[in-house]
TrEMBL record:
Pfam families: MFS_1 (PF07690). Residues 20-479 form the Major facilitator superfamily (MFS) profile domain. Coiled coil: none annotated. It is found in: Cell membrane. It comes from the Bacteria. It comes from Actinomadura rubrisoli. This is MFS transporter.
């Protein structure tokens, strides 16, 4: 091959890498967007379809259960069928489910469509992260790619709130689902320019026992967290679901340790740096999803913002996350150890939470003095944490294990989000009730703000603990090497 032909092939491969980033980022936006966009439109959908108050939560829960429960299976399917093929199937299925949900004529049709979205998202998310891992192996390009990917993920929740408010107010709640269809179909067209799957890398037989145990266990735990919000952590239903889910997951681990071709090889979890990345992102999402919930409540119920105004306020956080992921973490990837990004990111987010614990019902100039600085700090923190944790979670994996590692990373985020919403909402409700019972002639607004600040103090403590854990577990002697190699990062395995 002459020099011109070699240069042409290199340029073509480079173009395919950046095109892969574009389509994977579009898919990441879909997955994250649908975690929040329907929340804003739910009151309108409830009225239009005649949903009861007791059943309306299934529009949210059906998606979360299917997505969280099937992620590990989705990662395994991605490794067996090929990442690009699984990614394309996920996009087409997600578009079809979204169209079905937008056309829903009754609550059952909407709930089924949301569950279908979760099923295809469970294939789409790990396949997308796997495509990035296999396409970007050089440190500088890998840093930029994971920075953009993380920025889209970090900003997606805030964008979902804004888009949901605008579409519901000026179009219809149905467009909160229809909007996914053109985005997904454009991404499908883009996959034609993504490098094809590697031949001859079949994933072997599906671990049926592990698949059933993981799906049931994750679904039970996520549903327990969901039910803790309305029923409390001490209710028999929540305790039964939580204990049952944990027992199922323990059985899943036991099965995986003995399986010849496990759904989730335990070496993925038991590596020190990779385990640190998974713990860090889980605890980050615990704190951040509680934070998003309180920002939505506080701005609307205390400050009197409209849903659209509340969503636009969160854009500050999204822009800060974009800066943190692309201009800080993306540029420093490979130049500094992962811990040098993860630990300061967690501490920056913790500082943002701490600032908000100073709020009272009588605080003045709230937006410039409290909300904006906190939104900037938490956004920068999230933007600095997501790229290196995503990279660590998938670095140096054999090709056939990348899907499982990607699924474990996405599952960590889902569990963190579900736990954070339930746990911190329970803390806030308990603190509010305690304030009302112990204070003479309490003002309802003061009690509400006290509940929020107490929950944010717990989020602050969680982030400090995460920073301490990350400082120890993610410390590596060298930056992660190129993806796809059999070699592990130069860290000792967990004891």
């Amino acid at each position: 091959m002459n020099e011109d032909e070699s240069a042409g092939k290199t340029e073509e491969r480079s173009g395919r890498r950046w095109w892969a980033l574009a389509v994977v980022s579009a898919a990441q936006l879909l997955v994250v967007l649908d975690g929040t966009i329907v929340n804003i439109s739910l009151p309108s959908a409830q009225q239009a379809l005649g949903m009861s108050d007791a059943s309306r939560q299934w529009a949210i829960t059906a998606y979360a259960l299917a997505f969280g429960g099937l992620l590990l299976i989705g990662g395994r399917v991605s490794g067996a069928l090929g990442h690009r093929r699984t990614f394309t199937i996920g996009l087409v299925g997600f578009a079809a489910a979204s169209a079905l949900g937008g056309a829903a004529a009754n609550p059952g049709m909407l709930f089924a469509a949301r569950a279908m979205q979760g099923v295809f998202a469970a294939a789409l998310a790990p396949a997308g992260l796997s495509l990035l891992t296999t396409h970007f192996t050089e440190n500088r390009e890998r840093g930029r790619a994971f920075g953009v990917f993380a920025a889209v993920g970090a900003a997606g929740s805030a964008v979902g709130l804004v888009a949901g408010g605008l579409l519901t107010q000026y179009a219809s709640w149905r467009w909160c689902l229809y909007i996914n269809v053109p985005i997904a179909l454009l991404a499908v067209l883009g996959t034609a320019l993504v490098a094809p799957d590697r031949p001859g890398r079949g994933g072997g037989r599906l671990d049926i026992g592990g698949a059933l145990l993981s799906a049931a266990g994750f679904a039970a735990v996520v549903y327990a967290f969901n039910q803790a919000e309305p029923h409390g952590w001490g209710s028999a239903r929540v305790l039964a679901l939580l204990i049952g889910g944990l027992l199922l997951l323990a059985a899943f681990v036991a099965v995986e340790l003995r399986a010849a071709d496990p759904l989730l090889p335990m070496r993925i979890l038991l590596h020190r740096a990779r385990g640190g990345a998974l713990i860090s992102i889980t605890l980050m999402f615990v704190a951040m999803f509680g934070f998003y919930l309180f920002m939505s409540y506080y701005t609307q119920t205390v400050l009197g913002y409209s849903p659209v105004e509340a969503g636009l306020t969160l854009i500050i956080n999204a822009v800060a996350a974009l800066v943190g992921a692309t201009l800080i973490a993306g540029k420093l990837h490979g130049r500094v150890p992962p811990a040098a990004l993860i630990v300061p990111g967690l501490l920056a987010a913790a500082a943002g939470m701490l600032l908000l614990t100073r709020l009272t019902a009588g605080s003045e100039h709230v937006l410039p003095l409290y909300l904006a600085p906190a939104l900037i700090l938490t956004g920068l923190g999230l933007g600095c944490v997501m790229p290196p944790t995503a990279s660590l979670a998938t670095a140096n994996m054999p090709w056939q294990d990348i899907g499982a590692a990607s699924a474990a990373y996405n599952a960590s985020q889902q569990l963190g989000a579900a736990l954070g919403t339930a746990l911190l909402n329970t803390v806030a409700a308990t603190a509010t009730a305690s304030y009302l019972s112990k204070t003479a002639h309490p003002a309802p607004t003061a009690a509400t703000v006290h509940g929020y600040t107490t929950a944010l103090a717990v989020a602050f403590a969680i982030l400090l603990a995460a920073a301490a854990i990350a400082a120890y577990l993610t410390k590596t002697r060298t930056a992660p090497a190129s993806a796809g190699r059999e070699k592990e990062p130069e860290t000792a395995p967990l004891a």
